Structure formats: C-alpha cells, structure tokens
C-alpha cells in the first residue's frame, strides 16, 4: 500500500488548496481526495475529520506516484500534528504557506461565515468578540476558534522545525505566491525533486458569501444531506454549495482596526522574520 510522503500543512487561506490542485496535475504526484482528511490534528475540531487509521491509509491505496500527499490546513495550528506525522512518516516532506495576518484573518472570517462557524457578519465584530470568547462568555467555533492563534505562525512552524530536519521543510510566503507563482512552483518542484511541469494555474477559493442561510443549513455536516450514500451526497453537496455561493471582493478593513492589528502582530512578524531569515516588516507598513 502507498504511504503519504508529502503534507501541505497550512496556514488557512494561504493558498494550500491552490497548491494542492497544481500538484495533483503533475504526472508524478498523487494528492488525496478528500483534500483535507485532518487525521493528525486530534486536538482540533475539524469538520469531516478522518480518525480511523485504516480509513486514512485507505485514502492512498490507489496511489501510483513518486510523491503522495494530502493537504490539511489544520496541521499547522495543531499542537500535536507535527509530532504525530513525524512518528508515522519520518521521511515525509512538509510544505507550509504563511500570509500577512492583515490579509489572512479577514479571509478566514469569510470562510468561517461560509462554514457556519462565525455568527458575526463583519470581521471587525468577530475580532471584538475574541476576548469574550477566550473567557468562555461566547462560543468559539470551528477548527480555528480564535483568530489571533491562527496567525501565530512562528510558534506553529517551530513545532515542525523541531519535529523534522530542516531539509524536509519548505516554507512559502504568500506574497511570492501572488507576485511570482511560476517561480514559487519551480522551487516547489525542486524541493520535491520532481521533473519540470506546467500546471493550469487557475484561481481557487476566491472570497465568497452565502446567498441563503436556509440552504446553508442543509449543507452543514450534521444535516440529513450527509447521511445520504456517497457519491450522491458529495455530488449534491458540491452542486448546492456552488448554487449558494456568490464571489465578491472583500471590503477593506477600517483604518483604526488595521492599526490595531499592526500593533498586535508586530512582535509576531519580527519572530517570523527571524525564523525564516527574511524581513517581513512590510506586512505592517
């Protein structure tokens, strides 16, 4: 049976889905379906997580490729995933992507709204509720219950740097993803020792909002839809999700909130810059 030897570990809303799709097109790569099994993050409340080892390994039973991978954006925030992956697959290679928190967090808020794990319609309101949620005064839902924690990249990466030899890790800065995607792709191929190949660089996971709350409830994990036999439930889910999604540009954050976020994440950006050996201070400009 084939074993996974590549893990795309997040962070969320940083291009993991796009990179998964690009890699899946390569003739020497096999990427899992579902994309995010969430198997190793047992400390994270991830939707549709696969916890059974036999079922997890069964995802890769049909793989016939040099590189076999999966992409769970929850692994980076998990406190146990790095160690668990290392314990089971010590030769695995890890790819992480980090993004300016001032861009990533509003994008994560939009995704949580779509997922039904964020009741506040605006990121400003959700950010203001963060302290109340930490005190247990309001529910903190989903795989990424606290926004600030999701952007603590330095401590998240440190767990992987501790668990794996540095040569088995590759960190991408999302700025490069936007500015020079072909160059990022070439470096990924070199890291994975894969032959040159040009995929279809299509845009995935654009910002979206839901059209109907009622239809959105039908799509939730605990609804009757997901009790239907597969692949019928999968086909219905994807079709209804497309029908209920509207893509749109995200409104800019208010200047005062931008300033608050810059001050909050200034120490984190400094730590991450030192860890990666790259100046990321422009994120706070």
Give a verbal description of the structure.
- With 285 residues, the protein is an alpha/beta fold.
- The protein folds into 2 domains: 6-206 and 265-284, 3-Layer(aba) Sandwich (Rossmann fold); 208-248, no CATH class.
- It has helices at 16-25, 53-58, 81-88, 101-115, 123-128, 130-134, 147-150, 153-163, 174-179, 181-191, 213-218, 232-243, 255-276; strands spanning 6-8, 29-31, 67-71, 93-98, 169-173, 208-210, 245-247.
- The strands form 2 sheets. Strands 2-3-1-4-5 form a 5-stranded parallel beta sheet, sandwiched between helices. A two-stranded antiparallel sheet has the order 6-7.
- The mean pLDDT is 90.
Supply the key terms.
285 residues; alpha/beta; Rossmann fold; 5-stranded parallel beta sheet; two-stranded antiparallel ribbon; 13 helices; 7 strands; 43% helix; globular
């Amino acid at each position: 049976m084939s074993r996974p030897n590549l893990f795309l570990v997040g962070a969320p809303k940083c291009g993991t889905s796009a990179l998964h799709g690009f890699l899946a097109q390569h003739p020497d790569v096999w990427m899992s379906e579902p994309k995010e099994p969430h198997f190793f993050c047992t400390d994270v409340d991830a939707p549709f997580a696969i916890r059974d080892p036999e079922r997890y390994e069964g995802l890769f039973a049909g793989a016939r490729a040099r590189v076999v991978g999966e992409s769970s954006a929850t692994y980076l925030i998990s406190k146990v995933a790095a160690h668990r992956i290392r314990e089971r697959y010590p030769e695995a290679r890890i790819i992480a992507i980090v993004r300016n928190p001032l861009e990533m967090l509003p994008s994560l808020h939009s995704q949580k709204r779509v997922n039904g794990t964020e009741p506040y319609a605006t990121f400003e309101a959700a950010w203001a509720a963060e302290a109340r949620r930490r005190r247990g005064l309001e529910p903190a839902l989903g795989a990424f219950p606290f926004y600030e924690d999701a952007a603590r990249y330095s401590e998240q990466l440190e767990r992987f740097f501790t668990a794996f030899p540095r040569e088995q890790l590759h960190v991408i800065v999302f700025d490069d993803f936007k500015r020079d995607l072909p160059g990022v792709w070439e470096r990924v191929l070199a890291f994975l020792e894969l032959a040159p190949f040009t995929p279809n660089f299509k845009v995935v996971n654009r910002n979206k909002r839901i059209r109907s709350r009622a239809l959105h409830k039908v799509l939730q994990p605990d609804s009757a839809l997901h009790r239907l036999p597969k692949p019928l439930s999968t086909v219905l889910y994807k079709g209804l999700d497309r029908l209920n999604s509207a893509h749109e540009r995200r409104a800019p954050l208010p200047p005062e909130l931008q300033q608050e976020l810059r001050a909050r994440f200034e120490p984190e950006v400094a730590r991450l810059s030192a860890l990666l050996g790259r100046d990321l201070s422009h994120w706070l400009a």
